[in-house]
């Protein structure tokens, strides 16, 4: 699966399955016929963008390598209500135990991909790139960010470790933007970039003068955003953030910012409804 190491994925899925299985499935383990081979169909009950089918397939095979998932729809494709997404064949016991975990992930990731695609399409006429944030569900960040890219948007930093980002609370601790940037720049590898969050044009000037590589323009109105983009041109990349909605995202992109970051891609995404039925 693009962007996610299979070794890491299996570790994540083990934890998700253990949460549901606990000491064991006290229903399925007592059923007659649980070792028989069965086939189940996963079907969409909503329309949207499909994301997470490889994750669902790995969930079943992790419980029993004898399972086989035939993918009937393409990852990242638009799907309609009633579309058959996959057929899973294997021991009934494995299908029953993995069903809810696989569906939960598939529905959640597809919801995120659908939200991302809608917002990406709204700014397709501009040169601005939509990216996510670190506002993710603990334990699900890698998969949620995978879903964002499946929907056509991009990822911001994955965590605190892969980009130095100086925000308002960092500035308060350090005393000033200049002091924060100077201290961080001396400590991090020369290959790493520094982003600074600014709330007005005065802070923008301080960040640019301090040598920020990127500036996060936080909750600025449209006229101020345009001025900020002009002032930063050729000196730093610009990112607009704060209260980004489908209603205003195009106007924000038309200010000329390089990136728009939105936590709503993930935390406001609505699951796509799906079900699994054993034939």
Q: How does this structure look, described?
A:
The radius of gyration is 22 Å and the shape is elongated. It is built from ten helices and twelve strands. Helix 6 packs parallel to helix 7. Helix 8 links the parallel strand 9 (214-218) and strand 10. 42% of the residues lie in helices and 19% in strands. The model has no long low-confidence stretch (mean pLDDT 96).
How do you describe this structure in short?
This protein is of the alpha/beta class and 279 residues long. It has helices at 6-21, 53-63, 92-122, 141-150, 168-174, 177-187, 201-210, 222-232, 249-253, 264-267; strands at residues 37-44, 48-49, 68-71, 78-79, 84-91, 129-131, 164-166, 194-198, 214-218, 237-241, 259-261, 274-278.
Features:
42% helix, 279 residues, six-stranded parallel sheet, elongated, four-stranded antiparallel sheet, 2 domains, alpha/beta, Aldehyde Oxidoreductase, domain 3
Give a topology summary.
Layout: H1 6-21, E1 37-44, E2 48-49, H2 53-63, E3 68-71, E4 78-79, E5 84-91, H3 92-122, E6 129-131, H4 141-150, E7 164-166, H5 168-174, H6 177-187, E8 194-198, H7 201-210, E9 214-218, H8 222-232, E10 237-241, H9 249-253, E11 259-261, H10 264-267, E12 274-278
Parallel strand pairs: 6-11, 7-8, 8-9, 9-10, 10-11
Antiparallel strand pairs: 1-5, 1-12, 2-4, 3-5
């Amino acid at each position: 699966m693009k962007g996610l190491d299979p070794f890491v994925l299996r570790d994540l899925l083990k934890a998700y399955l253990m949460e549901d299985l606990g000491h064991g499935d006290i229903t399925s383990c007592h059923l007659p016929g649980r070792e028989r081979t069965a086939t189940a169909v996963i079907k969409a009950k909503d329309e949207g963008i499909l994301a997470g089918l490889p994750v669902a397939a790995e969930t079943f095979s992790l419980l029993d390598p004898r399972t086989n998932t035939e993918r009937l729809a393409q990852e990242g494709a638009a799907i309609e209500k009633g579309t058959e997404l996959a057929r899973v064949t294997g021991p009934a016991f494995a299908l029953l135990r993995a069903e809810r975990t696989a569906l939960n992930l598939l529905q959640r990731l597809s919801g995120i991909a659908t939200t991302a695609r809608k917002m990406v399409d709204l700014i397709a006429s501009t040169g601005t790139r939509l990216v996510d944030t670190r506002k993710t569900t603990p334990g699900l960040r890698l998969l949620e960010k995978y879903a964002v890219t499946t929907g056509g948007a991009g990822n911001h930093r994955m965590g605190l470790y892969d980009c130095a980002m100086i925000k308002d609370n960092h500035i308060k601790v350090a005393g000033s933007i200049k002091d924060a940037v100077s201290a961080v720049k001396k400590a991090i590898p020369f290959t790493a970039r520094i982003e600074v969050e600014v709330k007005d044009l005065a802070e923008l000037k301080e960040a640019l003068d301090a040598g920020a590589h990127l500036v996060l323009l936080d909750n600025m109105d449209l006229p101020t955003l345009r001025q900020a983009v002009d002032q930063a041109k050729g000196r730093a990349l610009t990112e607009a953030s704060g209260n980004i909605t489908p209603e205003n995202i195009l106007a924000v992109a038309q200010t000329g910012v390089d990136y728009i970051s939105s936590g709503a891609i993930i935390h406001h995404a609505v699951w796509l409804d799906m079900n699994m039925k054993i034939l």
